[in-house]
Specification:
By secondary structure, the chain is an all-alpha fold. It contains 18 helices and two strands. It has helices at about 25-50, 50-60, 65-75, 80-95, 105-130, 135-145, 155-195, 205-220, 225-235, 235-275, 285-315, 320-325, 330, 335-355, 360-370, 370-385, 400-420, 430-440; strands spanning about 5, 10-15. Strands 1-2 form a two-stranded antiparallel sheet. The protein starts with a strand and ends in a 22-residue tail after the last helix. Keywords: Membrane, Transmembrane, Transmembrane helix. This is DUF418 domain-containing protein. It comes from Spirosoma radiotolerans.
Length: about 450
């Protein structure tokens, strides 16, 4: 029997067992660590540079920074986040699979509590730490709706994942057709102006013209606005908060409910299917992982390189992008490109892990993955304090390649911290807090002198 202390009453609660004393699935922790560290390869660009300055590299496609950005974009962008989402989906199944009768609540009820607290942490990450690309808020919402899917077969989960991915692609295509319609109306208005130079446009025609011109203007580089963005981000906390607030609102409301919801749902459902097939728990054969690594990366990277020209065209010449394409290839293929690539990367990692290559490295990465929740928020703390004005104020000051020295430093800090911390404690500090809030009882934190194997339950997938 394990005795815990209730944070609500301060009293002791007996036989509350949120964590079964079984071995962790180490391969899941390794993959979490890889995904968590890999996400920073893309996030560092948002932490340290304006979007406009990054797009300028695309408009001037030469030099090492352009090729570095292109390589990161093709190999890792959205792929590591997709893997993170898949692992979170697997974590939902792990959570629901455990007997939690000692807590006095059914597993679905505990899962909802867990997700609601994750939403709170996401709001803190976005509105407190001012990271506008936070994903915890989104994960918290989607996870609540996905727990009934745990009874589906792997094949049914896969079909649901494909279906939601197609919804994402459909919504992207819908938006693209609206852009094409706006451009067609603009052409009609300009043709009318040329034909009848003295004629006056109706209010509707003026709106049609200004609508398209607004879209084009948004896609163009504005040096003054870019400098103003950098200046705002180098200011005090209140100024940065006011500057980031519109971005945070856009990401947590319009973007999420229009597009992001379908992306995350698709990847989580795929992760649930893969977990039921034993993929994440290292149960497939070595040959299977080798084939999945080769096939997944080959297909995913072919799709990524194939879609790259349309991605760059949308940045360089928005009018040409809309007028010359019948399909927004880069966005349309995104759900499937990242799914194949994420499976390929995961298979490659599991293959190397199984073969015992650089075992010391995988042990460190596993520690990072076991503390993925803590490390995710730690990245926000470290990077905002380094780049934003209320910290060291390096925002917009470094070249793209220099950002990756910061990435290496953060990786080193997190691997060392996670390894040392887990020699003394069962959970990461925020994992412990999240569990305690979920179960309404303080969890045992320190490792005993004769430590029992730690738990299988997902910390943050």
């Amino acid at each position: 029997m394990e005795t815990l202390v209730s944070p609500a009453t301060g009293g002791y609660v007996a036989d509350v067992r949120p964590v079964a004393q079984t071995e962790r699935i180490q391969s899941l922790d390794v993959l979490r660590g890889v995904a968590l560290l890999g996400i920073l390869l893309m996030n560092i660009q948002g932490f340290g540079l304006t979007e406009a300055s990054l797009q300028q590299l695309v408009r001037n496609p030469h030099g090492g920074n352009y090729w570095l950005m292109t390589l990161v974009h093709v190999l890792f962008e959205n792929k590591m986040r997709a893997l993170f989402s898949m692992l979170f989906g697997a974590g939902i199944l792990l959570f629901l699979a455990k007997s939690r009768t000692g807590s006095g609540m059914a597993a679905p009820e505990l899962l909802i509590r867990r997700q609601l607290w994750l939403i709170v942490f996401g709001l803190i990450n976005a509105w407190g730490l001012l990271w506008h690309y936070d994903i915890l808020f989104h994960y918290g919402i989607v996870g609540i709706f996905l727990f009934p899917f745990n009874r589906l077969s792997p094949r049914a989960l896969l079909l649901c994942a494909v279906f939601t991915g197609l919804i994402y692609s459909g919504k992207v295509y819908w938006k693209f057709t609206e852009q094409k319609q706006a451009y067609a109306k603009f052409q009609q208005v300009t043709a009318l102006e040329k034909k009848n130079k003295k004629g006056k446009l109706t209010d509707e025609q003026k709106d049609d013209k200004s609508a398209w011109e607004g879209m084009v203007k948004e896609s163009q580089y504005d040096r003054k606005k870019d400098k103003a963005d950098v200046l705002a981000m180098r200011s005090d906390y209140a100024s940065v908060w006011n500057h980031q607030a519109p971005k945070i609102k856009r990401m947590e409301a319009p973007f999420f409910y229009q597009i992001g919801l379908w992306d995350i749902t698709s990847m989580m459902l795929l992760g649930m299917a893969l977990f039921k097939w034993g993929f994440f728990s290292n149960q497939l054969s070595t040959k299977d992982y080798a084939l999945l690594a080769t096939g997944g990366l080959l297909i995913g990277q072919v799709m990524a390189w194939f879609s790259l020209p349309t991605y760059e065209m949308a940045v360089v010449d928005f009018t040409r992008y809309v007028s010359r394409n019948s399909l927004p290839v880069s966005d349309f293929l995104m759900p499937f490109e990242r799914a194949f690539s994420a499976i390929g990367w995961a298979s490659l990692v599991l293959l190397l892990y199984r073969l015992g290559i650089a075992s010391w490295l995988w042990k460190a990465v596993r520690s990072v993955g076991q503390m993925a929740f803590t490390n995710y928020l730690m990245q926000s703390v470290l990077c905002t304090l380094f780049f934003y004005g209320y910290g060291l104020g390096y925002y917009g000051d470094l070249k793209l390649y220099q950002l990756y020295f910061v990435v290496a430093e953060v990786w080193l800090i997190q691997t060392v911290f996670s390894t040392v911390w887990l020699t003394y404690f069962r959970f990461g500090p925020l994992e412990w807090l999240w569990r305690s809030l979920t179960y309404g009882a303080w969890q045992a934190m320190r490792l005993r002198s004769n430590p029992q194997p730690t738990a299988t339950a997902a910390i943050l997938a």
